[in-house]
Design a protein that fits this description.
Blueprint (H helix, E strand, L loop, with lengths): L2 E9 L7 E8 L2 E6 L9 E4 L4 E4 L1 E6 L38 H7 L2 E6 L7 E9 L5 H4 E11 L2 H9 L7 H21 L7 H10 L5 E5 L2 H14 L3 E5 L7 H6 L4 E3 L18 H7 L4 E3 L11 H10 L4 H6 L3 H6 L17 E4 L10 E6 L2 E7 L4 E4 L8
Parallel strand pairs: 1-4, 1-5, 6-7, 9-10, 10-11, 11-12, 12-13
Antiparallel strand pairs: 1-2, 2-3, 5-14, 7-8, 8-9, 14-15, 15-16, 16-17
């Protein structure tokens, strides 16, 4: 049994008001938290020195472990672009836990990520939600699969247009997605236990609303297509990127569809990004849309996740909404809000001790805990985050 009390900290629980007090962790879960908490007998005590304690951040759209920074072509395993409908491929089969990006995640206070296949295919494959520290991917998994990736817009159009095959246009991309869902419906109706098709099984999970449909889309017309397809086939839709989603934010809010917005630091490298602005998260939130801010790592380094929030606040996003956009909101999108995303009794002790308010760019993550176990500590003398060796088994 492990018992840890983190005392003398400014706690930002996310789902309730901040307080100065303590958090007690027993066997990897939060047992209690509050301003006048009695430290249990036998507990190891960590005095936080008045610093800030928050839940670990959650980035709901990355390619961490599949596409290490600086690696391209055959060294990246993010897209299986040999067929437009790749519903059966699984991100979990391509995640390298020793990608240096995992250490960057911890340095930025990120303890959970959702690893997606890429956007080269209209249907790209199954995502996986994992912790950001571990030696063995199966020990890091929080939910698998956590969604099925799909893409509209320029990426699949370019990939298959260059191959001179369908789909080479937006209308062709929507068509092959429709055909895939119709085929999956027919497959489900036959229900032959001796004729299992992995591709159809993945699509059936979406149609049965067991996992969400993760729709890559930037331009307003692509967002509208995403809404139309979801209406036709009746699945749970999550809009990924949503660069111009603010244009029809009222429609999105009315349908209660979450938007994972970002990356926000990029140049407008293709025509569908011309509407990108750091003001867009605030516009979506003001319209009543639940937002999560994402890095799309390695597009934006994952340790910059919270800095995107800070600059979005500068351009109008409510600060409370900003913190929710990298904690409880993405946890909810991933179906993990009962475990992560806030500091509450019963939840996983995925916690980060900050030198101060993490929305202040001058503050840094000092200690990171996953499941109550410290996995990173900032060394002030060398100015380097020291990460627990991933080759060692979890204590």
């Amino acid at each position: 049994m492990s018992l840890l009390a983190i005392t003398n900290v400014h706690v930002v629980p996310i789902e309730s008001e901040p307080f100065d007090g303590s958090v007690v962790i027993r066997d990897g879960r939060i047992e209690a938290c509050g301003p006048d908490l009695q430290v249990p007998d036998g507990a190891e005590v960590l005095d936080g020195g008045g610093q800030w304690l928050l839940p670990g951040f959650v980035d709901a759209h990355v390619h961490l472990g599949m596409h290490p920074e600086g690696e391209v072509g055959s060294t990246a395993d993010v897209n299986e672009m040999t067929n437009p409908i790749m519903a059966a491929v699984r991100a979990i089969d391509a995640v390298d836990p020793f990608d240096p990006g995992f250490d960057e995640a911890l340095a930025g206070g990120v303890t959970t990520v959702n690893v997606n296949p890429g956007s080269g295919n209209p249907v790209g494959g199954l995502a996986v939600a994992i912790h950001t520290h571990g030696r063995y991917i199966d020990e890091m998994v929080l939910r698998s699969p956590s969604g099925l990736k799909s893409a509209l817009g320029e990426n699949p159009k370019r990939v298959y247009g260059e191959k001179k095959q369908t789909p080479s246009t937006r209308l062709g991309t929507a068509m092959v997605i429709r055909e895939a869902f119709i085929e999956a419906r027919n497959y489900m109706a036959k229900a032959d236990p001796e004729a299992i098709d992995p591709k159809m099984e993945a699509l059936a999970m979406v149609l049965r609303r067991e996992i969400p449909w993760r729709q890559h889309c930037h331009r307003t017309d692509d967002v509208a297509t995403a809404l139309r397809l979801a209406e036709e086939f009746g699945y749970d839709l999550v809009l990924d990127h949503g660069t111009e989603a603010h244009v029809i934010a009222d429609v999105i809010a009315e349908r209660n569809i979450p938007v994972l917005i970002g990356p926000l630091f990029t140049t407008k490298s293709k025509v569908e990004l011309r509407g990108r602005s750091l003001a867009n998260p605030g516009k979506l939130h003001d319209a009543g849309v639940e937002i999560s801010i994402i890095t799309d790592h390695p597009v934006i380094p994952i340790n910059f996740l919270v800095h995107q929030c800070t600059l979005a606040i500068k351009e109008g996003l409510d600060p409370v909404a900003a913190l929710r956009s990298i904690t409880i909101n993405p946890a909810r999108v991933l179906g993990l809000a009962d475990r992560i995303g806030s500091i509450e009794p019963g939840k996983d002790a995925d916690l980060v001790l900050w030198s101060g308010d993490p929305l202040d760019v001058m503050q840094r993550a000092l200690r990171v805990f996953i499941g109550g176990r410290q996995v990173m500590e900032y060394d002030a003398e060398t100015r380097v985050p020291v990460v627990v060796d991933r080759k060692l088994p979890v204590a």
